[in-house]
Amino acid sequence: MPKRKIHRERPKEKFSYDPKRVLKMLDEHARKILEDIKAGKNPHFDIPMRGLSNVYFDEKSRLIRMGDKLSRRYFLNVAHTRKFMQTLLIMAYVKRLVSEGKHASLREAYYANKHTIPGTRENTFEDQRESDPIIEDLERMFGVLREEMHITADRRGYIYGDIVIRDGEDEFNASKLGSGGWAVPGTVEHIQFPEINVDYALVVETAAMADRLIEEKFPKKENALIIATQGQASRGVRRLIHRLHYEEGLPIIVFTDGDPYGWYIYSTIKQGSINLAYLSDKLATPESKFVGMTMDDIKKYGLENVTEKLKGIPPNKKGGPTGDYKRILEEMEYPWFQNKEWQRQLKLALKWGVRIEQQALANKSLEFVAKEYLPEKINNGDLLP
Amino acid sequence: MAEANQLFKEFKIQSVSEFFRRNAAMLGYTGKVRSLTTLVHEAVTNSLDACEEAGIPPYVRVEIEELGNEHYKVVVEDNGPGIPEKYITHVFGKMLAGTKAHRNIQSRGQQGIGISGAVMFAQITSGKATRVITSTGDDEIIEAWVKIDVDKNEGKIVKKEKHPNPKGWRGTRIELEVKNVKYMRSKQGVFWYLKLTAIANPHAHIELIEPDGKLIVFPRSSDEVPEPPVEMKPHPKGVLTDDVYRLAKKTRRNTVRRFLIGEFSRISDKKVDELVEYIAALRLIKTVQDKKLQEQYYQKLMEGHVKAVLRAFRGYTKVVKQVAKIMEKPPEKLTWHEAEEIVEAFKYMKFLAPPTHGLRPIGEENIEKGLGGILKPEFVTAVTRPPKVYSGGIPFQVEVGIAYGGEIPAGFDLYRYANRVPLLFDAGSCVTTQAARSIDWKRYKIDDLDRAPLVLMINVVSVHVPYTGTGKQSIASVDEIYNEIRLAIMDAARRLQTYLSGKHRRLAQVKRKKTFEKYVPEIAKALSVLTGEPEEKIKEYFIRFIESRFASPEVEEVAAEEVAEYA
C-alpha cells in the first residue's frame, strides 16, 4: 500500500457566524425604507436578480457566482406592493427569531406570518411558495445565509468519524454515536469542532455505501470522515463540507455513482448551483476532488457485467438526445468540466451508453470498496479534478 | 272573344280614396300593432307640424282607451293653432290635399294623405266618424264629426256643434274609433313610437295614457321651437324630365329662360347661355356616325370643354341659334323632347351644390337634450354633419346621437329617424342599420356591442328621403348617405371613447390606490418591529405619501425596465 498523500491542511478562513450582522442588515434596510417614505420618496428594495441571466462562472475562484443585476421592488407599484409588504413581514419575523435565539423552519416561517389582512379576504401569504422566495430574496439582499437568519433548511445527510462536535451545550465524538453517525442539522452555523482526528473527508452519495464503509471500519482504518449526502447534498451538508474544508483544512473527496446525476452532485458541491449562486462563497468547495465512480473504473476493475444502460435516447438516434444522454451533453458544456479527464469520462459514458453505481463494486466482494478500491485510488492520488 | 263593350261594363273610375281604402297597407296600416302606431303617428305629426309652423311649444297628449276586443278609441289633443271651420273637411277628408304635398320641402308627413288616411282607417274598421274638437282661440269651439265620402274623395261633416270658448282654449283634439288593432308595449307600439318622437323633439311635451290608465310623460327638455322648414327650389342635378315638363306647364313665367332661372336653384342667366351650348353640342354629337369618336366627344363634354366640342363641327353657330330660340318661347310650349334635352344637358353641366337652408336638423345640442332627458344616460353626445348632396342634386344631412350608461339597460339599441320621424319597421334593410353595424366598435372601447348600454340615434334629414318602399320605414342604401352616417357615428363614437377611457382610467386609479392602502397596516406593523418607531406614525407617513401621489391627475408609474420583476 502506497504512502498516503492526502491529509489535513492549514485552515483558510475563520468561523464567521455573527448574529449581530443580520440584525444590522435588517436595521439598515428598514431605516432606509422609513427615511424614504418620510421624505415622500417611493420606497424600494434592491434585490439581486435570480435566474440564469444573472449567473456566471468565475474562472478565478472557480465558483458559480451571481451577477450584479438588481431588481427594484417598489412600494408604489401595483405589481410590487404585495411582495414589498411580504418582504417587510419576513424581515420583522427574522428580527424576532435572531434576537430571541430561536430557529424556525421554512414552513414554520410561512405559518407564523400567514394571516388575513384586516378588512379584506386576502392573506398576507397564500402559500409557502410565496414565503420561500422572499426568504431567498433576503439572503441575496443581505448576503447572509437563511441559516444565519435562524430559518433552517431541510435536514438530510450524516457524518461519521473521529471528530469532536460541539452543538450548543452538547459535545460528542462522531465516531462514538453508533453506526448511524451524527445527523447533520438544518443549520450548522453554530456547530464547532474542538477536536479533529481525521486526514480528509469522504463525501458519499448514497447512504447504503456510507453504511457499508462504516461497517468495514473504513473511517478508522483510513483516518477519514464519512459524510453521507443521501442524494443531492442539502444546504446543511454543503455548508458543513465548506466549513470543514476552509475552517478546518480537511481535503474533500467525493464518491458518487458513475452517472450524470452523481457527477452533478459533485459539481454542486464543488462549484455551487445556479439556484443558490449567491451563496457559492459559503456553500461551494472548488478544491474538492472526485474519486469515483468513473468510466475508467469499469475497465480497470472488470465491472462490465454490472453496468446499467443509460436512460433516454442517444443523440444519434431519432428523437434524441433525451434523459441521461441529454444530461451528459449538458454537463460537457459546463465550464468546470472543461478539462481533458472529465471530457474523456463523459465521452466514454456517451459512447458506451452505460452508467455504474457505487454498489456495483460489491460484485467483487463486500469488502472490496473499503479495502481496495478507495484506499488505492485515494492514496495514489488517482482522482479527478 | 268577348265584345269590348261587354268587358268595359265593369270599368269604373276609382277615386283616390277608393284606391287607398283598398290599399291601406301602402299607408302603413298593416298588422294590428302597427296600424295603431300609424294612426297615432299621423295625428301626432300633424300636431307637431302645426305647432312648429305657429311657433308654439307643442303639448301633445295621446290617450288610448280600450273599448272591446281589438277595439280602441284613440284621442290626440294638442295646443296647436287650431283649424278654421271651413278647412276641417279638407284636412280630414280629402286625400292628397294639404299645405305641403306639392312643394319641395322637408316634411314629417305623408304628403297629405296622413290624417285623412287615419280617418279613413277608423271609418272602414269601426264605421264611426272621427270626432274633431278645435278652436283657433277665438270665442267658439267647434265640435265636428267627419267622414270621408270614398267615391267622391271628399270629407263631409255628419254632425257639427258649436260651443262657447270662455277660457280661450286653442288647439285640436281628435277622437278616432278603430277596430282590428292592438295596443302593445312592443318596439313597434305606440309607447315606443312616442318615446322616440320625444327624443327627436325635445321641444315637445308628450303624454300618453295607456289603456290601463297609466300616465306616461315625456317632458320637454328644450324651450327652443325649431323653425319650420322652408321650401327649396329643385336643383338641376336632381330633376327628371317629367319634373321640368310639368313645372313648365304650371309656371307663371313667360319664357323658358325665366322659368328655368325662377323655378330652379343655382340657375342664372349665364347658366342658361351655357345650357344652350350644351344642348347644341349634344345635338351635334348625336349626328356623328363613328361610335368611338362620339364617345370621345361625350367625354370632352363631361370635362367641360363645350366650346371645343362645338368648334369641331362646321356651322355650329346655326345649331346654337336654333337652341337659343327654345329659351325665349313661352314655357307651356316646351315639348317633352326639349325637356328631355334640358335634363340631359344638366347631367353634363356643373352647378353649385344645392342650397341647404331648407334642411332642419334637430341640432347637436337638442339631440343631447332629447337623449339626456328621456333616457337619463351617464354620457351623451351628438354630431350634426354639414349638408351633403346625393344623386347629384338632392341635399341631405345626417345627425347622430350616442347615449351611454346610466339608466340605459345593457344591449345595443338603434333609434332610426327620417326627418325626425321615428322609423320602427324594416330595420334590417335600412341604411342606418347597415352603417351602424359596419362600425368597428371595439376601436371605441365598446368590446361587445350587443351587451353595451348604448343607444345610437340616427336622423337622416332631406327634402327627399330615399325610402325603400311605400311604408317609408327604411332608408335605401345610397352610398353618399351611408358614408355620411358612418362618418357621423365614428365622430360621436370617438367622443364616447374619450369618455370611456377617462372613466376606466379613473376607476383603475381608485382601485390601485386601494391596493396600496390595503397593505399599509401590515407594513406599518412590520416596520415598527424593525425600527422601533410607533406603528401609527408609520401608517401616517404611508397614507400621506399615497394621498400625495394620487392627488396629481396622473400617478407616475415607475418606468417599466426599472421594475422588471422576475416571475
Q: What would you call the structural class of chain A?
A: alpha/beta
CATH architecture of the largest domain in chain B: 2-Layer Sandwich
Instruction: Give the tally of structural domains of chain B.
Output: 4
* Number of distinct beta strands of chain B: 14
CATH topology of the largest domain in chain B: the name is: Heat Shock Protein 90
Q: CATH H-level name of the largest domain in chain B... which superfamily?
A: Histidine kinase-like ATPase, C-terminal domain
GO cellular component, one term (chain A): chromosome
Enzyme class (chain A): isomerase
Pfam families (chain A): TOP6A-Spo11_Toprim, Topo_VI_alpha, TP6A_N
Keywords (chain A): ATP-binding, DNA-binding, Isomerase, Magnesium, Metal-binding, Nucleotide-binding, Topoisomerase
Q: If you had to describe this structure to a student in words, what would you say it looks like?
A:
The complex is a heterodimer of chains A (385) and B (567). Chain A has 385 residues and is an alpha/beta fold. Chain A folds into two domains: 19-152, Orthogonal Bundle (Arc Repressor Mutant, subunit A), CATH 1.10.10; 157-380, Dna Topoisomerase Vi A Subunit, Chain: A, domain 2 (3-Layer(aba) Sandwich). Chain A contains 13 helices and 17 strands. Chain A has helices at residues 19-38, 81-100, 106-113, 128-142, 207-215, 218-222, 235-246, 260-271, 280-283, 295-300, 323-333, 340-352, 368-380, and strands at residues 44-48, 55-58, 63-66, 70-74, 104-105, 151-152, 158-160, 163-167, 170-173, 182-183, 192-196, 200-204, 224-228, 252-255, 289-292, 308-309, 354-355. A six-stranded mixed β-sheet of chain A has the order 10-7-13-12-14-15, sandwiched between helices. In chain A, strands 9-8-11 form a three-stranded antiparallel β-sheet, with no helix packed on it. In chain A, helix 3 packs across helix 4. The longest helix of chain A is centred in the N-terminal third of the chain and has 20 residues, at 19-38. Chain A is globular. The two termini of chain A are 23 Å apart. The mean pLDDT of chain A is 89. Chain B has 567 residues and is of the alpha+beta class. Chain B folds into four domains: 16-218, Heat Shock Protein 90 (2-Layer Sandwich), CATH 3.30.565; 241-348, no CATH class; 364-491, Ribosomal Protein S5, domain 2 (2-Layer Sandwich), CATH 3.30.230.10; 500-565, no CATH class. Chain B has 17 helices and 14 strands. In chain B, the strands form two sheets. An eight-stranded mixed β-sheet of chain B has the order 5-4-3-6-2-1-7-8. In chain B, strands 9, 10, 11, 12, 13 and 14 form a six-stranded mixed β-sheet that branches. In chain B, strand 7 (205-209) and strand 8 (215-218) form a beta hairpin. At the A-B interface, helix 1, strand 4 and helix 2 of A face helix 16 and helix 17 of B.
